[in-house]
Write a structure and sequence with these properties.
This protein has seven helices and six strands; from the N terminus they run αβαββαβαβααβα. It binds guanosine-5'-diphosphate and magnesium ion (MG). InterPro entries: ARL15, P-loop_NTPase, Small_GTPase_ARF/SAR.
Length: 211
Amino acid sequence: MRQINRLVYFYLNDNFWFVTLCNRIRGHQPPAPKKEKQVVCIGLSGSGKSTALALIAGEPIKEIQSTNGFHVKDVILSDCILNVKEIGGSEKIRKYWRHYYGGAQGVIFMVDGTTNEQELETARVAMFDALKDPQLCDLPILLLVTHQDMENARSASEVAELWNVREFYEDSVMEYGSSIKNIEQLKEAFSAFASILLHGVVGPTNVNVDI
Ligand SMILES: Nc1nc2c(ncn2[C@@H]2O[C@H](COP(=O)(O)OP(=O)(O)O)[C@@H](O)[C@H]2O)c(=O)[nH]1
Ligand SMILES: [Mg+2]
């Protein structure tokens, strides 16, 4: 009887370690958790923040309400998760934006490419003011120019040039166009930005977004 007990004991223990070892060798260990990055997403009301974030998160965009205060969305990419905090963009809320910047590792600023000159200037001032804040001033910036499906929309490079962003933010800023009609464009922008946040360069590692 003792002999049998000993055999069972050795079978269970040895087998456990053997199976674990085999799984490790065959690469069956549990995947490492994805890195997470904290991002703030700002821009005037109606610039398309909630819509773009819903699209990239694979959610329906039909019933989006205007954002009061803030809300957070997880954007899951191939090798990281962006915890994106969208802050409402009305004039009333803009005064309080800085209270929501804590812990940010990157900034997304959205502007509607079809907006008139006056609104565009309001957006520029809002972005430049926000980026003066010590919590944001050294972070990578994604300038996303939305509504690219509209004929009269300014392109991302037009806005970047008009705002002289390269002179102020040098290599910290990347500009992309986006539209509700082109999810690929949005994926490309988020992938490139995530790559900068993770590796400091736009690399090939996370071009595939799992949505
Ligand atoms: N045609 C078009 N409409 C857009 C685009 N992005 C957002 N919108 C619309 O713009 C309006 C405001 O969008 P919303 O995401 O609520 O803006 P937010 O206030 O910045 O969050 C909504 O009616 C959206 O459907 C876009 O790329 N193209
Ligand atoms: Mg919103």
